[in-house]
Amino acid sequence: MRNILSILLFLLSGLFLHGVEKLEVRTFPDGYRDDRTGSVFSDAPSVLILHAWAKEKAFRSGRVAVTLKLPENFRIGHYSIGRRPRPGKSISSVPAGKGWRKWTLSAGNVNYHSVYKVSAHPWRPTVPWTESSVVIFLSPEGRGPEHFDVPWTVTGDAFEPVSGTMKLFTLPAPKLTKAPKQLSVWSTMGMYGNKTGPGAWTGEYYLTVLKTMKDAGVNGIIESGGSWLPDAVYPVAKLHSELGFETIAMNCFSYSQRITPEAMNAAGFRITDRDVKRNASGRSMREMRSCPRQMFCFSAMAEKDSPVRAYMRSYYRRYIKRGFRVFFSDYEPPVYDCCYCDKCRRAFAAFAGADESECLTLKAGELVAKYPWKWYLFRCGLFGKVLGLLREELGVSIGWNSNLVHENVYLSALRSFGWSAFAEDPRILDGSIDFHNADSLATGLASVMTVGAFLQKTPDGKALLSRPLIARATSLHWVNWGYFCIYGRYDFARKKGFRGLGVDFRRKLHKLEIASDFAQGASGVEISASPFVADAEALTGIAEGIQFGADFEDRLQVRTRLDGRAFRLYDCTSGPSPYREKMKQGYLSNYLLMATDRYGAVQCIAHGENDWRLFTLFNWDYEQAKILRLVPDDLPEGDGYFLNVSIDNRKSATPRCYSAPELRRGIMIAVPAGGVAGVLIARKRIFPEGRIDFPAHAQGREIRFRIPDRSGSGMAEFIRKTFNPQVERLARKYPDAGFRRIEVTE
Questions:
Q1: pTM value surpassing 0.85
Q2: Beta-bridge partner residues of 401
Q3: Helix%, strand%, coil% for the chain, nearest 5
Q4: Least C-beta-crowded within 10 Å: which of 179, 204, 671, 672?
Q5: Alpha helices in 371-483 (DSSP H)
Q6: Where are the beta strands (DSSP E) in 457-601?
Q7: 3-state class (DSSP) for residue 520
């Protein structure tokens, strides 16, 4: 009787518990559009993801199942819960009538550890990473509908069923007509890889997706934290030897220092107190309860027999053994919140020509207040020395992700340079590394202006930096946190009264940003073409930007870039644009509007040597085509100039030649909304002969490119904008260390 009662109670408790938990499900691709429409490829695999969180508290559920209805020409060949693939036998489908099939994915038991919550960060409101996402690999087989809805439902025995619909459209996978020869295009493979197993991948999908990315112009694959490459599926070494990809490891410099001295000692690297950082309060990082990210002394690390650097070399060599040959990190060692041990103080005294006994006795805040600029130079130089030693000892390419501090010194026309808040000033690191990775994740035109700071010329016309630059781009959907930043931003936007994100134009944005980076002279871009964050439309825009760079890469060099005296530009467009009013309605588009308000919606970058000129016109107005009159003022005299024109990668050349006086009357050209136009004036046809319809000549309004107020490069600005903001924070963090503002009156 007791057993029967127990069984009844168990069954009744199951009835009462069923459905009590709630699940939060967001879908990718949801297009970032305010109409929540996404895109998939019509002729290549795509990824559908149902990102799932517990809504109120973590829980576990059994008998989890996902059902979807898809057009008959799409097949689900594989799926995974986070990085944990499910066997193929858990996938089944039945006809659903009228050209559709119903698919059922039987996932079994699933842990919903992460609870959905939007972060409070004001400009990057994210939601937590979740390992409960359902990652579905979708393969097209034959022609299907151009637009379709995908109804889906998630069920389980411990939560209420959740249903929804994805609205999708199809695009053909992009294929470049000309691949870059010298330009680097680096991409991660996404958030669902696994370095010890297949992760979400199978060999079939991994190789097919790699091919899709390569056809779109990607020629380098990055492994970074959370984006592990699945060696068990396809070894990293083969990415280069068999598929022709450059292989890049990100953040080894950081990861190799995320270890306690005790663990280093256990591994055979004898660490002493002199190797460990002593902070501004005089406390050794060895005394901290947890292992900080930056706990070792750079002065000790730069010594010939440094055990810390020896351990770092062993860490790098694990990656070299796997097949990586290019390395860069995003580490950000603070300039003033750093090590103040006696070794550092003595090294600084020798560097600055200062009194050693004084440097040893002053409080940390007093020391940097007396030598603010020299301490900045010392820290950046010391950091560069460690990087240079690793580069020499390992025999691999090492670059760095540098972060500039001021938007007011972002424009190359200022001939000044932003100071970094960290010990990674690109000018100082330039001789110690192989390339710069510009931390330019502002998005759109603001990012382009950041890149311009790295690629500016000195007054004598030489490039400020000698090393090549890789520019970060496509940050609209990739801001270091995968796709989850979009969900947080969307919720944040609605709460703030915006109609949504307002980024229906992301294909155009990616094209403009990447093409602009190349036009300024970047040697490459770091993007995210991963199928886990870039849907068909996003990758298409990425490929369009790469195509522009590939078509003109021989001419898009920093050394060939001309200043504004090479041309005049007139806007002959009639009628107002709806751009401003539409942009104000979206959370992200309103942010992008600020950049065009500041710098102008139309930009032009000029290049030239001898008897050729290339003018690249960018229309950041996504709502209105611009009729422009371009006047090439410094074109050498003579006849026989052909016009080679590329408008959004549609290329043609004029049938006849033009004289220099004819061209200096003005070249009329229509640049599409959100479009890129390259106008190459040369002695021969570069593109196929074709009809080019130029609008009739008109005077127009001259476009004067706005240069922000000069922030200057003197010490007063350095103290105001770099030193004081940092020491104000450090004064609160270390109240007894003597940090204080320096008042400047200039």
A1: yes
A2: 437
A3: 30, 25, 40
A4: 204
A5: 372-394, 426-429, 445-454
A6: 469-472, 524-527, 561-562, 567-571
A7: helix
